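Re: your question about Methylase

S., sorry for the slow reply, the queue was backed up all week. Below is exactly what I fed in.
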Amino acid sequence: MEEAKQKVKKQFGQSAEQYVTSRTHSTGKDLAILTEWLQLKPDSVVLDIATGGGHTAKALAPHAAHIFATDLTVEMLAAAKRHLNQSADNIFYVAADAENLPFLPDTFDAVTCRIAAHHFPNPEAFVQEVVRVLKPGGQFILIDNIAPEDNVLDSFVNRLESLRDHSHVRSYTVSEWKKWLGESGVSVVKEEIRKKTLGYPEWVRRTTSSPEQIQEVDAHLLSADLSISSYFSIQAEKKEIQSFTIDEWMAMSQKAKK
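Result:
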């Protein structure tokens, strides 16, 4: 477990600025939907876990009193702060492990985590920590890449992610997430699954470290049979991959009121 977290620190420390500018992370209708779903009050205190380039914190900052943006990687936090310094003065940056948060129970009105949990080696602990730091009645929005429930598709997409990013742990299924949320005492009150199209050249270069690694990712995608290629909408011209899609889940859960 500790080895997985060291891989995350190394990977994101090296590519922090690329995640700030990444179109996958800096754009998306989910950033607007976040505020619609949460309906934050002006005095709200919000925690954004694994903030990455700070895009979620930036979207929420105008709607809350204080945002605490945490990340395991200090270099990533520094990049996010440089990115956000001119646009928000109510964001505080804290180096923290998502599975062992340095906050007291019942602290936050809302917690968010966007496009990050597939790097967490112990998602059950992460969910338990989220529920612990949420105030009674507080809301938790999770947005992440997910694996299909079909085992063949699950194996294909997780192998793809691992080849491209050695810090990838697993894209979990919706059924896995719902099990962990339910066991922690929260219920999903709103959810949405969407297809997310990824421009392949930018996506593959963001985390790979050599032409040989890119070739491995290329080969895996090009090896897909018709059913897999169709599911992930793999687009290629003369064996040059242009884009593909993955599944993303956005879910809002609520902690019970006392």
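The mean pLDDT is 90. The beta strands are 45-49, 66-71, 91-95, 108-114, 134-146, 186-199, 235-237, 240-255.

Happy to talk it through on Thursday.
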